UniProtKB/TrEMBL annotation:
<feature type="domain" description="Actin-like protein N-terminal">
    <location>
        <begin position="4"/>
        <end position="138"/>
    </location>
</feature>
<dbReference type="InterPro" id="IPR040607">
    <property type="entry name" value="ALP_N"/>
</dbReference>
<dbReference type="Pfam" id="PF17989">
    <property type="entry name" value="ALP_N"/>
</dbReference>
<dbReference type="InterPro" id="IPR049067">
    <property type="entry name" value="MreB-like_C"/>
</dbReference>
<dbReference type="Pfam" id="PF21522">
    <property type="entry name" value="MreB-like_C"/>
</dbReference>
<dbReference type="InterPro" id="IPR043129">
    <property type="entry name" value="ATPase_NBD"/>
</dbReference>
<feature type="domain" description="Actin homologue MreB-like C-terminal">
    <location>
        <begin position="156"/>
        <end position="270"/>
    </location>
</feature>
<protein>
    <submittedName>
        <fullName>ParM/StbA family protein</fullName>
    </submittedName>
</protein>
Length: 323
C-alpha cells in the first residue's frame, strides 16, 4: 500500500485526510481517543492547534508520531487491514532537498519493523518497507500536468504554514538555481491578523476564526472584526507578491500556480491592480500528498489495485528521484 504524506508546519495531509499538526502528550488515557495514537506507553492527541515552529522537523518525535496517525487514518479510510506493509512518499522543499532527504528518510524509518501502536484504541502493526522523498510543489504537477503544457516558464508558489516555496519550471523541468524558500507562510498572516484585531477592538480571536474569514467563509463575528481580518489578508497578499518580485520572479511576465493551505487566501485577495500574467490556484491542500503518492505508484510499477488514481508521466530531474 502506497501512502503519500505532506508534513506541513500547519497541517498533516494525506490523499484523503487533513488535520492540524499540533500534538499533545498524555501519560494516561486522555479525554478523547479521536485522532490519538498510543505508542511507547503514552498517548498523543493529534490535530489540536499547531506546533511551535521548528527549524528542523526532526528535532523531536512529533512528526514521527503524526506520521503514524496519518498512516492509520489513511488505512482506516481505505478500509485496509490494520496489519499490513506500506511504502511512504513524503516531500521536502527543493531548496533543501539534497541536504535533508537522507536524514528525513532515516527519521521516518528509524523504528524496528514492524511498528506496533494503537490508533483510536485499535491495534495496528505496520511494516514501513520504504520511504521515497519528492519535491514539494513540483509533485502537484503529477496531478495537473495540463497546467504547464505548452508553457515555456511557470512559477510554482507553494504557500504553506511557515514557508512559501518558490520554483520556476522551464519547459516542465525545475530550474534549480531559481528555488527559494521564504519564511512568509500563513502563520505570519494569521498572527498579524489576530494582533491587529486586538489593537483595534481589544478582542482575542482564535486561529480557527481567522482562517474561516480569510478563506471567505462566514461565521458569527462582528462585521468590524471581519473587515479587519479581510484587510489583513489583502495586506499579506501585497507583501507576498512584493517578496516574490524581490526574489527575482516577475508575476506580470510569467504564469503562477499557487497551491498549499494559503492559496485560498491569496486567490481571494489578488486584485486586477496586481496585474498578474495568469494565476492558477489549486485549492485542495492535499494535492502535494496526492502527488507524492501518485509518483511513488509510478516508480514502483503502479499503485495497488483499487486505487482511484492512475499514475501520469512525471518529468524527471537530476537527483530528485534518488532516495
Amino acid at each position: 500500500m502506497n501512502i503519500g504524506i505532506d508534513h506541513g508546519y500547519y497541517a498533516i495531509k494525506t490523499r484523503h485526510l487533513s488535520f492540524p499538526a499540533g500534538i499533545t502528550e498524555y501519560s494516561h488515557e486522555p479525554y478523547t481517543l479521536q485522532n490519538t495514537p498510543e505508542y511507547g506507553g503514552k498517548y498523543f492527541v493529534c490535530g489540536t492547534g499547531r506546533q511551535p515552529i521548528l527549524r528542523n522537523k526532526m528535532e523531536n518525535d512529533n512528526y514521527y508520531l503524526l506520521t503514524l496517525a496519518a498512516i492509520a487514518g489513511e488505512i482506516r479510510h481505505q478500509g485496509e487491514n490494520t496489519t499490513c506493509s506500506v511504502r511512504l512518499a513524503a516531500g521536502l522543499p527543493l531548496a533543501g532537498f539534497g541536504r535533508e532527504k537522507k536524514p528525513f528518510r532515516e527519521y521516518l524509518l528509524r523504528s524496528p519493523q514492524p511498528v506496533s501502536f494503537k490508533f483510536e484504541g485499535v491495534p495496528y502493526k505496520i511494516t514501513i518497507e520504504d520511504v521515497k522523498l519528492f519535491p514539494q510543489g513540483y509533485s502537484a504537477i503529477a496531478i495537473y500536468p495540463e497546467l504547464i503544457r505548452n508553457e515555456p516558464s511557470v512559477l510554482l508558489m507553494d504557500i504553506g504554514g511557515w514557508t512559501v516555496d518558490l520554483m520556476r519550471l522551464d519547459n516542465g523541468v525545475p530550474n534549480a538555481s531559481t528555488c527559494r524558500s521564504l519564511e512568509f507562510g500563513m502563520i505570519r498572516c494569521i498572527d498579524e491578523a489576530k494582533e491587529q484585531v486586538r489593537r483595534d477592538t481589544g478582542l482575542s480571536v482564535t486561529d480557527a476564526q481567522v482562517e474561516q474569514i480569510l478563506a471567505g467563509r462566514d461565521c458569527n463575528m462582528d462585521k468590524t472584526v471581519k473587515g479587519i481580518i479581510q484587510r489583513q489578508g489583502r495586506i499579506y497578499t501585497r507583501r507576498l507578491i512584493s517578496a516574490v518580485l524581490e526574489s527575482g520572479f516577475d508575476l506580470k511576465a510569467i504564469p503562477v500556480i499557487m497551491l498549499g493551505g494559503g492559496a485560498t487566501v491569496v486567490k481571494g485577495s489578488v486584485s486586477e491592480q496586481d496585474g498578474l500574467c495568469q494565476a492558477f490556484t489549486l485549492l485542495d491542500d492535499k494535492v502535494n500528498a496526492e502527488g507524492f503518492e501518485r509518483i511513488l505508484g509510478q516508480y514502483s510499477g503502479g499503485v495497488r489495485q483499487g486505487c482511484d488514481k492512475v499514475p501520469v508521466f512525471f518529468p524527471s530531474t537530476s537527483g530528485i528521484n534518488d532516495r
